[in-house]
Amino acid sequence: MVARAPFGSRMATAVSSRGPLCVGIDPHPELLDAWGLARDANGLEWFASRCVEALAGEVAVVKPQCAFFEAYGSKGIAVLERVCATAMEAGALVIADAKRGDVGSTMSAYAEAFLGADAPLACDAVTVSPYLGFGALEPAVTAAERNGRGVIVLALTSNPEGRDLQHAATESGQSVAQSIVNAASERNATHCAETGAQLGPVGVVVGATVGQSELELSELRGTILAPGFGAQGAGIDDLRKVFGNALRDVLPTTSRAVLRAGPNAESLRAAALRTRDEIVAGTADH
């Protein structure tokens, strides 16, 4: 197996060459309907393959939403495997949006599924949930470092149900969300010191629609995945307000705003490139 460059280095290169945009591959049943596709594994594969065809050669990152693939059982998982593999072959980085989180041997199994050297669901990074404790993610972080992959940890999400937990104060007085960012920052600092990489393997999810918060992100040295750009309501001004001086490491994510342009591949690609150009122009001074 050819050794991979560290995830953070590959992310920095991808964003530099292709621009700061992640497009979600979200085969929601309503989108299958809109594209004239059946709500079955065949419709799923056609949808996902068209997204890869249109996007993976142009955008820095694609993010398949695993739940929409898992909904079709083993056939859907097989489609997810092919989507990840073909998108990476086309040059995009792939973040599997799986939000996995557990302890001990179970977390190790999740890590092997997505981040192992010969992972069946091999991707460049996977989203994980830290709410059994950041330390419980250690098997995933270790596997990511060992195999040149990454983990993207939920920190401050845009869903209203998460506010009570994520804004709650820990014993130290900082918010739960800040404690997660701080733990990620510490891990990245060690990794970057050892490897000389610009970015570490541990990113965080912070919603682009959360509004102004007291979250301190400037020391993260990792990717900040920012869902909510576009159809969910966030624009350039929101990115500036939410992320401030950490904007340089933000990877805005959009799904429906681009996917609604389908099923024509050229229309999908054009919608993604317009969004990318809007982000580049709006954040140029950062």
TrEMBL record:
- Top EC class for this record: lyase
User: What domain of life does the UniProt record list for this protein's source?
Assistant: Bacteria
The record's PROSITE patterns line, in alphabetical order, gives: OMPDECASE
Q: Where is the Orotidine 5'-phosphate decarboxylase domain positioned along the sequence?
A: 20-271
One GO biological process term is: 'de novo' pyrimidine nucleobase biosynthetic process
Q: Which Pfam families match?
A: OMPdecase
| The enzyme's E.C. designation | 4.1.1.23
Catalytic function, reaction form: orotidine 5'-phosphate + H(+) = UMP + CO2
Record: active site? 99
> Under which name does UniProt file this protein?
Orotidine 5'-phosphate decarboxylase
Q: Can you name the source organism?
A: Tamaricihabitans halophyticus
